Amino acid sequence: MLVCPFLILITMACDLTLGRLEPCKDSVGGLKAIYLANFEEFAFSDITFELTGEISAIANSPDVFKYELRGTNDFNETITTSRENGTTFYEQVLTLSLKKLSPKSHKEIKLLVAGRPKVFVEDNNGNIFLAGAEFGMDVTAGNITRGAAMGDASGYSLTLTGMETRPAEFLDDTLVNVGVVVSTSNIDDI
């Protein structure tokens, strides 16, 4: 049997490393809250990613503003890849329904539409993901509705979209409680 001394096994960065078992049926859909950080609060280089992809640290403890969510709110990521071009990116789309109109809400919505925040998304399973980590997210659609009948919605519907080179990564459990500063100022408190 001949052995080639120049044959070296090369593992590429995109080779799989683990399999996946069928998980238990113990998760639910939906979003619990989002936390908005102004784009300038922290740079992509301020984020520490573990080998697992989880975010374990964010320098400067950015200030974030919590928006509680109920009802129909959604966060999806579409993977787009091209063998011909050698490219892959993730389109992140966050759809929000915010109830009740107010002058203070109007002011904050105008600021949100003009900016491009980084968004921490908390789902109903207790997971928190960072969307728009490198490039931020833009409000790409929305409306302000007052409803036609007494039982109709009165509030804001917004769609935020981001394009990123990696999916929205999980925040490590230790970072969830100490890595960001959640503002205690709410629209209703001002």
Could you provide a short overview of the structure?
With 190 residues, this protein is mainly β. It contains two helices and twelve strands.
Question: Which spans have pLDDT < 50 for at least 5 consecutive residues?
Answer: none
- What class, by secondary structure content? mainly beta
Instruction: Tell me the Rg in angstroms.
Output: 20 Å
Order of helices and strands: EEEEEEHEEEEEHE
Summed over residues and divided by their number, the pLDDT gives a mean of: 88
Task: Going across the biggest sheet, name each strand in turn.
Answer: 11-8-7-1-4-12
**General shape:** globular
Structure description:
The structure is a single chain. The chain is 9% helix and 39% strand. It has two helices and twelve strands. It has helices at 103-114, 173-178, and strands at 31-37, 47-49, 55-58, 63-68, 74-82, 87-99, 118-123, 128-131, 138-145, 155-164, 169-170, 181-182. Strands 11-8-7-1-4-12 form a six-stranded mixed beta sheet, with no helix packed on it. It starts with 30 loop residues before the first strand and ends in an 8-residue tail after the last strand. The mean pLDDT is 88.
Explain the layout of strands and helices:
Layout: E1 31-37, E2 47-49, E3 55-58, E4 63-68, E5 74-82, E6 87-99, H1 103-114, E7 118-123, E8 128-131, E9 138-145, E10 155-164, E11 169-170, H2 173-178, E12 181-182
Parallel strand pairs: 4-12
Antiparallel strand pairs: 1-4, 1-7, 2-3, 5-6, 6-10, 7-8, 8-11, 9-10
Key words describing this protein structure:
190 residues, mainly beta, four-stranded antiparallel β-sheet, 2 helices, 39% strand
